[in-house]
């Protein structure tokens, strides 16, 4: 068990595979804005997955979510905190949800990033309700899943609306 994020070394983290994933391959150890750094860690993962058939992409996201419940709980237990900011696997999954069936291009990857962070930080209803009401590994995951769904809807809506706007 560890009591302070500052005491975690990368070597120590790699000895605990669940915590290595939970802390976003080390990105969650960023001293400021670990959620943003965790989401940044998701961008290359999405980049590798973006050309997969949608059924395989969705299967990976579902598996990442289900495994994430356990991964986040193990990481939180190791850090001895209920919802430590260093645990960013939920941000990775939330971003992957945001990018389901997203159009190709770096602009869409950036837009998805910004929208996901917007909803994850502001936590409008029902995200804030889920954040307060559900605890443990599931609670760590579920608010980011909802934020990802909100951002997904925005990305898809913008993709369908933007081509119809004439300047």
TrEMBL record:
CDD domains membership: PgpA
Domain YutG/PgpA: 22-157
GO annotation terms (biological process): lipid metabolic process
Signal sequence, renumbered to the chain: none
Keywords of the record: Membrane, Transmembrane, Transmembrane helix
A Pfam family assignment: PgpA
Classification via InterPro entries: PgpA, PgpA-like_sf, YutG/PgpA
Keyword Transmembrane: yes
Positions of transmembrane segments: 20-48, 54-72, 92-116, 136-159
Name listed for the protein in its UniProt record: YutG/PgpA domain-containing protein
Source organism of this protein record: marine sediment metagenome
Lineage, highest ranks first: unclassified sequences, metagenomes, ecological metagenomes
């Amino acid at each position: 068990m560890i009591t302070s994020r500052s005491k975690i070394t990368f070597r120590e983290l790699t000895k605990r595979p669940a915590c290595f994933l939970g802390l976003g391959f080390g990105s969650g150890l960023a001293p400021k804005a670990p959620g943003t750094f965790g989401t940044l860690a998701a961008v290359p993962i999405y980049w590798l997955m973006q050309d997969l058939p949608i059924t395989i992409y969705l299967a990976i996201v579902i598996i990442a979510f289900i495994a994430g419940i356990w991964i986040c709980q193990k990481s939180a237990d190791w850090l001895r905190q209920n919802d430590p900011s260093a645990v960013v696997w939920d941000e990775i999954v939330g971003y992957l949800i945001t990018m389901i069936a997203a159009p190709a291009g770096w602009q869409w990857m950036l837009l998805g990033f910004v929208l996901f962070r917007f909803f994850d930080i502001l936590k409008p209803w029902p995200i804030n309700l889920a954040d307060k009401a559900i605890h443990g590994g599931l609670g760590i995951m579920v608010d980011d899943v909802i934020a990802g769904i909100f951002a997904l809807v925005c990305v898809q809506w913008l993709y369908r609306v933007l081509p119809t706007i004439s300047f």
